[in-house]
Amino acid sequence: MNAITVDEVRKRYRGGTRDALAGVSFDVPRGEIFGLLGTNGVGKTTLIGVLTTRVRATAGRAWVDGLDVTREPVRVKSRIANVPQRPTFDRALNVTENLLYHAAYFGVGRSERRRLAGEVLERFGLREHASAAVDTLSGGLAQRLQLARALMHRPSILFVDEPSSGLDAQSRLLLWEQLEGLRADGVTLLVTTHDLTEADRLCDRVAILHDGRIVALDTAAALRAAAPGRGAMELVIDTAVDPAPHFGIFGDVRTSRAAGGGWAVQLPADVDAAAAVSTATGAGLQLRALRRIETSLEDVFLHITGPKLA
User: Fold this and answer.
1) pLDDT higher than 70, residue 224
2) Nearest Cα to 89, choosing from 59, 132, 50?
3) pLDDT (tens digit, 9 = 90+) per residue, 112-138?
4) Angle at 194 between CA 184 and CA 10, to 5 degrees
5) Can you name the residues that pair with 22 across neighbouring β-strands?
6) I want to staple 140 with a disulfide (CB 3.0 to 4.6 A). Which of 47, 104, 125, 171 is the partner?
7) What are phi and psi of 85, to 5 degrees?
């Protein structure tokens, strides 16, 4: 049984002239980190709303942890947890009290919630902040507390919105490791993100949502491999004159001014490096650098949707 199944889900809001979701279907196996990419306004928030029972679909069906989200919303809510982009703590409570309050809300017994609080404080490196006011936490610590709180009623599925938004590089890497640790424990995560590097590094599979439809769904590696062009080879040459004519034998040649002077020459990815270097030296050109440029997930996204992430 999949952790999440979505079958031809449609949503049109009252008074709307177009579908916010226009027949979305996909499955998320248990223990997977599934990434959902898309610009603002393409239906991500609506889709997450349907899966978390906050939005009722106009048509189609969805199941979370084997439960129909429309027919069994209370049971669904007990199996899931939301980790929003911005913290939603009770500012009157300290770190530990926020954890205990959340568990109590979901009916976890007193001794069990204290045990769980100690466990998640340790797991997420929050032990020394256990009595701290939540307003004193850094962005990275606050995001770790959000994850810790989400686990306090032992959900099997987490919905995580923009997990590393606003975090510094070190905090972001630590957070990714913690999310990967949850996957290793069998927790399923559905992550919405604008950060294509994050999606590439973190997600087992990625779905691109555009105009209310899933327009691509696969592993990041498979999406990159299927993209037109599949990267390029770039030579940086110290010359004052555009060297493009010397590389015409390789077909599609693109040149531009290089940082620090000279010219950057991009050749098709399948060009043999030795042949490219031989051509440059044979023409008397001074080669400063040679590198392969891999197709990125951003290249894939822009090829499929056109607009940039916003």
Assistant:
1) yes
2) 132
3) 999 999 999 999 999 999 999 999 999
4) 90
5) 10
6) 171
7) -65, -40
pTM score, whole prediction: 0.79
Tokens of 95: 């770190």
- Those residues whose C-beta lies under 8 Å from the C-beta of residue 51, and which sit 6 or more positions away, are 4, 6, 62, 64, 69, 80, 159, 190
Q: Which residue has the tokens 């999606």?
A: 199
Mean per-residue pLDDT of the chain: 91
Q: 2-226 has which CATH code? A: 3.40.50.300
Residue type, 232: A
